[in-house]
Design goal:
This protein is mainly beta. It has one domain: Aromatic compound dioxygenase (Protocatechuate 3,4-Dioxygenase, subunit A). Helix content is about 5%, strand content about 25%. It has three helices and eleven strands. The strands form three sheets. Strands 3-2-7-8-9 form a five-stranded mixed beta sheet, with no helix packed on it. Strands 1, 4, 10 and 11 form a four-stranded mixed beta sheet that branches. Strands 5-6 form a two-stranded antiparallel sheet. A hairpin with a 5-residue loop joins strand 5 and strand 6. The chain is globular, with a radius of gyration of 18 Å. The chain binds fe (ii) ion. Fe (ii) ion binds next to strand 7. It comes from Roseivivax halodurans JCM 10272. Belongs to the intradiol ring-cleavage dioxygenase family. One of its GO terms (molecular function) is ferric iron binding. Pfam families: Dioxygenase_C, PCDO_beta_N.
Length: about 240
């Protein structure tokens, strides 16, 4: 912080690594005390990505995998927001990547086992770079919920996976965004590993009628807070490091 203010992390805001209701966390969580490694120079200074590498349609999942003149099937939405630091200031030049299931809840992945069909015009990945005020925006379809083998009949709420990349190779954070009004959110074993209802609500994007495109797309707003007491819950930083 340039003004010297330090915002400590609230560890109770983040889920424990070991959460038996989310079965794969049992074998993935560490069973011994964590060891702290100082970052290496190459981790802090190594190149991450070239800003000129992004294509024209990278932020448009409606069209970036579609045949010319066609678009993805499903409810058309805009997902937008800002990448913010702990003091609420926008963070520019962050690579924001998203991936999601199609409108039927199906991923384009060779290990995907759900019976819902693929959409030939939907790939499910996109990326953009945050602007000077930290703002980002994507066009896509509303993803469908999908079942997963946890306790036999668990369903993921509709969600979009987010990755944010900073200025160094080791600065990558990953989280998920949910949609206002989805009854599956509070039934999800993964969501329920997050101890605080307020932290879950921070992952739920509200419908924003002011940013809709009439006769075209609804809009959902999702701000990402990188750190501090009210950081977005990042699933790859569950220990609060
Ligand atoms: Fe997913």
């Amino acid at each position: 912080m340039s003004d010297g203010t330090f915002f400590t992390r609230d560890r109770g805001w983040h889920p424990p690594a070991f959460a038996p209701g989310y079965k794969t966390s049992v074998t993935r969580s560490p069973s011994r005390a964590l060891i702290s490694f100082p970052p290496t120079l190459s981790e802090q200074t190594g190149p991450v990505f070239g800003h000129d590498m992004l294509g024209e349609l990278d932020d448009d999942l409606l069209h970036n995998y579609a045949a010319p003149g066609e678009s993805a099937i499903g409810p058309r939405i805009i997902v937008y927001g800002r990448v913010l630091d702990e003091a609420g200031r926008g963070v520019p030049n962050v690579l924001v990547e998203v991936w999601q299931a199609n409108a039927g809840g199906r991923y384009r992945h060779k290990k995907e086992g759900y019976v819902a069909p693929l959409d030939p015009n939907f790939g499910g990945c996109g990326r953009c770079i945050s602007g000077e005020d930290g703002s980002y925006s994507f066009r896509t379809v509303l993803p469908g919920p999908y079942p997963w083998p946890n306790n036999g009949n668990d369903w993921r709420p509709a969600h979009i996976h987010f990755s944010v990349f900073g200025s160094g190779f080791a600065q990558r954070l990953i989280t998920q965004m949910y949609f206002e009004g989805d009854p599956l959110i509070w039934r999800c074993p993964i969501v329920n590993t997050i101890p605080s209802r307020e932290a879950v609500e921070q992952l739920i994007a509200p419908l924003d009628m002011n940013r809709t495109i009439p006769m075209d797309s609804r809009a959902y707003k999702f701000d990402i807070v990188l750190r501090g007491r009210r950081s977005t819950m990042f699933e790859n930083r569950p220990e609060g490091n």
